[in-house]
Structure formats: structure tokens, C-alpha cells
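Box 3.1 A note on notation
Throughout this textbook, protein chains are presented in two layers. The first layer is the amino acid sequence; the second is a C-alpha cell string describing backbone geometry. Keep the layers aligned when reading.
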Amino acid sequence: MAQEYIKPHILMMSEITADGKLTLKKGASSKILMKYMDKATEILLHKTRAEYDAIMVGSNTIKIDNSFLTVRGVEGESPIRVIPNSRADIPLDSNVLGSDAKTIIAVSAAAPKEKVDAIRAKGADVVVCGESRIDIVKLMDLLVRDYGIKSLIVEGGPTLNYYMLQEKLVDEIRLIHLPFIVGGSDTPSLVGGMHIDSEDEMFRLNLKNHYLCGTNLVTEYDVLY
């Protein structure tokens, strides 16, 4: 009998430019664009974090942005930070390894023991989920069963966003639209990894809300599978 997996309610939230880009160019920090968000939209971002049990970004985002992923400027507790990092090679001076919020680092069974031990020594929980790469479905199941996480916000880069959608894990998407066009054929966009052959493979959305938050347009979608 196949094992049944459970998952939290998952919101994918991101700022994007008018041409759907996350950064100025490949390898650039998203913080460069985020500083142009309206103050009201920045408050929305942190209020959303405070409403969710956990927040997840990919390890490459941590290496580039070195984000804190905490709640700032509004009332509420910071969510549990979840970082998929199959090789346990997250920099040990990363802000997410600080004591300001609980952090879970998900690694594969192939992660070197000395690196796993070094992360644990920083105070983070380390969970093994997958053999050579992260099994994202099992990770979601583990977060619910072992940590009681019922809701999770994904502020990922294009790779993590793709895998979350591919595995049909995302329930909602909220986009903060920034009035810029940056271009670039290799500039990271909201979702990477897709090479579809027909419209049948597209991820379909239902627009359920749109509004101005300060000067930024915000759109909200349900994901249709």
C-alpha cells in the first residue's frame, strides 16, 4: 500500500518585475529590487510571515541574499525557517543560523557528516529527507508530522518554486508587482526549470484578488491542478 503524505497549506509569495524577473541579473541579490517596494507592501510581507507557521527558501537564495527571514516592523512571532540544502553546504555565518528564530535545515543522506555536525553546532535542527537530493514531498510531510507546521510560506528562487509547483504542493500564489523591466535571457524569473512541450503542461492559476498596496499592485491566485 502506497504511503500517504500530508502537507501544510502553502503560499508562494514573491516580488516580480513587470517582465516577471526576480533580480537584476543572474547571481544578483533580490534585495536590490526589494528596496523599491512601497513601505505598505513591505509591511504586508512581514504581516504575512507572522501569519504562517514556517517560511522556506532555497539554499542558493541564502547564499546570495543572506536573508534573516524574520518578522520585523509588525507584531507577531517569526516563523520557523526551513532551508532545503542537500549537501549541507550552507555557509555557517548565514543569518538564518542565528538564534533569533528556529531553523530547520533539510539535507540528503549524502551530506557529509562533518558539515551536518557543524550546522547542528550552530543550533539548527537538521533533518535527513532524501538519498542524494531533497525529497520535497517527504519534507512537507515531515514538517507537519514532526513539527506541527500547518502553514508555510515559500519565498523561493526559480528552482525551488518550480519543484514546489511540479509536485503540486502550492495552494496559493501572491505576487508583488514592481514597475520595472530588467530584461536578460538568463535573468532569474519566478519559476525556472520548465521546458514544456504543450499548453497541457502549463501550471494553471485562477486570479482571485488584486489590489493596490501603497503604490504596488498585488495579485493573488489559487493554483489549479
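The chain has a mean pLDDT of 95. DSSP finds six helices and nine strands in the chain.
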